[in-house]
Please model this.
Amino acid sequence: MKDSFFPYEPKTLAQLPIPIATPEQQATIAALVQQILDAKAADPAADTLALEAEVDGAVAALYGVVLPGGA
Model:
């Protein structure tokens, strides 16, 4: 697939399943992201992998998916 690209077509993208997060789910994800941003602002080398894994898990849960390792 060298030199290939995905053409943007609204009718195709409209078929992608985009879950609607509840306000509580949105707040949880937003709080985690804010913690990551705050940590990186204080120290760009800060280890935020655990927080990032929590974000990944929360987003995966919206899709009904369990990530390997239970993240």
